[in-house]
Amino acid sequence: MPSSKKLLNPKIALPVKSASESKATIKTSERTEFLTNANAKSLSSKIEFFLISLNGTVYVEDSNRNKTLTPRAAAAYLTLQNNGKKYKFVTNTSRESDDKTQQLLASIGFGISKNDIYSSLTSTRDYLIKNELRPHLLVSDEVLAEQFSDLHTMLHRPNSVVVGLAPEKFNYANINKCFRLLARDKERKLIAINNGRHCLTPDGLSLGTGPFIKILESASNREAVAVGKPSHLFYWNVLESLGVTDPLTAVMIGDDVREDVIGALAVGMHVCLVKTGKYKAGDELTAIAFSRGEDLVEVPVEERCLVVDTFADAVSLLVKKVVEVGANVLL
């Protein structure tokens, strides 16, 4: 394999289901053909469900968090909507509620409904409800009020600790409270809304949720349950929310080779990498290992996914029809 290829994790084998994920109602199919640039047209008719990453794919964001839609993103959305495709716009943010995300999108001309959004916060709610967990939540006040007000049980013997991105809450007292809850009962779950090591803020690169999760994992001697991208749980949850029974009827479109492409491949979905947002030249050459019998076979990502310039280009390839407004063809 050429030395320019980046080996992210030589132990990844696809498709994979953990013991907890095997309880999902979604059935897996043995993959016979991967979506690539060579077969996009022939496979497009089999794809009915679309997962689309928001930040970096639908819009790009600068260091001051100013957002701009990627080329023809609004037209691509209309194409999906008008051709009867089912879709969710996914985001891994845990610092903004789904309501806030919807408002931000509307402000830049991308008017989708709240029900069209599936975030790591949504995935967390689904996981908590499905497993009948009573969480102690270390999240921002906005997220607590708008996403978890009915589940917040600080005063009622929580049996889980949930941590999201809440810089204003990341102090010794709050982290120590989470530790003490975990230390008192080894059965209490530690749940990471996401595990990002760092994030971009107006004043520069800042610590994400991941380092604080690591502190709690180390101190409490347990492994956190990850429910955001790129975890299997996130993808199973969002597929289940769409009613998907076969991952081969769904495609994940995203700009992040790890969270979007490898994460979705790991649950048996088709994937499409776009060259916007987090994409860096050569990401499509990232090496990934697939299981073949008892062996692991290493191949570049581009042999297992479609690679295009933009979200709109992906929709143009995968949706046969076009949408017209007056005399103007949008896609």
TrEMBL record:
Names of the cofactor(s): Mg(2+)
Which Pfam families does the annotation name? Hydrolase_6 (PF13344), Hydrolase_like (PF13242)
GO molecular function annotations of the record? metal ion binding; phosphatase activity
Q: Tell me if Magnesium is a UniProt keyword of this record.
A: yes
| Record keywords, A-Z | Hydrolase, Magnesium, Metal-binding
Q: Which domain of life is it from?
A: Eukaryota
Q: Does the keyword Hydrolase apply?
A: yes
GO annotation, cellular component aspect? cytoplasm
**InterPro entries, alphabetically?**
HAD-like_sf (IPR036412), HAD-SF_hydro_IIA (IPR006357), HAD_sf (IPR023214), LHPP/HDHD2 (IPR006355)
Family under the similarity heading:
Belongs to the HAD-like hydrolase superfamily.
Name of protein: Haloacid dehalogenase-like hydrolase domain-containing protein 2
